[in-house]
Fold this sequence. Notes:
The structure holds two protein chains of two kinds.
Chain A: H1 12-20, E1 21-24, E2 30-33, E3 36-40, H2 45-54, E4 64-67, H3 84-100, E5 103-105, H4 115-122, E6 130-133, E7 147-150, H5 153-162, E8 164-167, E9 171-178, H6 187-198, E10 206-211, H7 213-216, H8 220-228, E11 237-239, H9 244-250, H10 259-269, E12 282-287, E13 294-296, E14 304-306, H11 320-333, E15 348-351, H12 353-356, H13 359-369, E16 380-383, H14 388-396, H15 399-406, E17 409-410, E18 431-434, E19 449-452, H16 455-464
Parallel strand pairs in A: 3-4, 3-6, 4-5, 6-7, 9-10, 9-12, 10-11, 15-16, 15-18, 16-17, 18-19
Antiparallel strand pairs in A: 1-2, 2-8, 13-14
Helix pairs in contact in A: 2-5, 6-8, 13-15, 13-16
Chain B: E1 6-14, H1 21-24, H2 44-47, E2 68-73, H3 85-92, E3 97-100, H4 105-113, E4 117-120, H5 123-135, E5 141-144, E6 149-152, E7 156-159, H6 164-172, H7 176-181, H8 184-197
The complex binds iron/sulfur cluster.
The site of iron/sulfur cluster has 14 residues of chain A, from helix 4 and helix 12.
Amino acid sequence: MPKDTMPAPRTLFQKIWDDHLIHTDDNGSSLIYIDRHLVHEVTSPQAFEGLRMTGRKVHHPHGTLAVADHNVPTTDRSQGIAEPMSRLQIETLSKNCAEFGVQLFDMMDKRQGIVHIIGPEQGFTQPGMTIVCGDSHTSTHGAFGALAFGIGTSEVEHVLATQTLIQKPAKSMRITVNGKLQNGVTAKDMILAIIGKIGTAGGTGYVLEYAGEAVQSLSMEGRMTMCNMSIEGGARAGLIAPDETTFAYIKGRPMAPQGTEFDKAVDYWKTLHSDADATYDKEIVLQAEDIAPTVTWGTTPEDVLPITERVPAPSDFKDKAKQKSVERMLDYMGLTAGTNLQDILVDKIFIGSCTNGRIEDLRAVAAVAKGKKIADNVKHAMVVPGSGLVKEMAEEEGIADILIEAGFDWREPGCSMCLAMNADKLDPKERCASTSNRNFEGRQGRGGRTHLMSPAMAAAAAITGTLKDVRDL
Amino acid sequence: MEAFTKLSGIAAPLRMINVDTDIIIPKQFLKTIKRSGLGVHAFHDIRYNEDGSEKPDFVLNKPEYKNTCTLITGENFGCGSSREHAPWAILDMGIKCIIAPSFADIFYNNSFKNGILPIQLPQEQVEQLMKEAEDNPDAPLNIDLEKQTIQRGNKLSFDFDIDPARKHSLLNGLDDIGLTLEKKAHIVEFETKDKDKRSWLYK
Ligand code: SF4
């Protein structure tokens, strides 16, 4: 082809965008088509109510899948939900789904689980799709090369009514991690290190594309962990180009294309990668070997350090506003500057969430905990599988037995203490080693102190009773 | 949605950066199935003591800021979750405008859908407005969306940027869904073409 007729090189984001663009107004705002919509009980009641009030219908009910996850109890459910507000919210979801013809995995369904775990698990999530949900961690699905982002309730209503959204194209940032991760270092450490580098607002306005050897060698589960926390870096979406690992993961899942349709889909999916000379608005490069097991010490996910370090002092930071917030954080977290991170005692352990509640995560915990007992100072170590199917698999593999034997509490699937909306929460001043994604003040219970880390690191904390470098165990 | 044209009233300084959605409205209040009534719970943990009494040093508890309609605050306001309960709670307190050096994307978006105007200004201008709001709490801050100006007394006056489409919707109180449904023919046309290309999505 002569050079001037060659199509301009595009990023993965641009390709997905172009394939979903319905219409652009003169003022530059675009209407894009939404392929898949996930719905949960907390951010949807007002959206369905809006449809009802305006007499609108769900445009494409098959594009939507609903599940109850944020509010469900993670103990025996056969007696229903005791808390009346939670119960009402979950009953409202069932009623709304029945009325509007939306498929629902209810609390007693074996496929029930955290919304961002069940989408991929069912094959509902596929490359090249646009996927939205009234939940900021929708970025998880970007691991499949789908453009996936969180929306508010007004937008949930908009998608239900029209299967579209009004959007502006985002800027693009490529984050390349070259080399190989060291032993004991995981996808979680990589994403915490990245957020530490770009900051919680560093990705605002961008779609992040993760690339490089260390990213490509991750399993789908590791990729989901990374994309999941894109929002913690301020980006609404993270992307990883789909490859053979992706296709193999999807093949045979209940909601995935089957037979010749699958082959046709793969042909299309193979076109979904950034062109070699595509340009990005911003580029960041890291070396995998430089990343150590990483934990947070403060109350935003950018406050990270390698586990080998010490708690910082406000004066370690240049920015005045940050100094002030570090002071507040140390006070809230009950930490003294200069303390060795590995001398910090923990009270509780939380293993779960859409960041790290998948089977591989539970395997990693079991690998560390096998044949050991949780430390005496650890009051409670919870394991909350991401879905009913993850739970079943873990039980079949013997993981559940290993963890129960070590003293962990093996629970029913849901969001649980990731956001502490149900009964699972920290008491004031309790310190938790958590595999979740947010360490904001009060996130896991009012006054609770959260340290984010990988499943293996959380297991190490459970066994030793302190924040601990898992490589030393 | 209620239209937003002009706003004049008390502005309160909230000197914090990274005010996240858990601070704006903690999760125990997300169990509601309604949009209204969240105002009393807004900023719960920094606003109330354990026993439910008001913390006197929280800015919106101070008598001079009781009737605040504009919040002036630090960078990355509204980071965290997608919960629209955050703008609902703020609106339910009577706050219709937020001024900050930067906002988290989803919160920024959600604000417009509820008739709240988020204004992004350079750090130095935010600082000047913040200082003014601290020093002279009674002087009203005037915001004119049509003209895209903020003005306070005869000392401070700034212009601000806003996306034209959003401005138009806000000024006229337009409902996005209604606007999109007018483009239904485009949507159907898209689906018809797409069915050939990505047939597996429509089974
Ligand atoms: S596990 Fe946590 S982050 Fe994920 S959807 Fe549930 S509450 Fe949100």
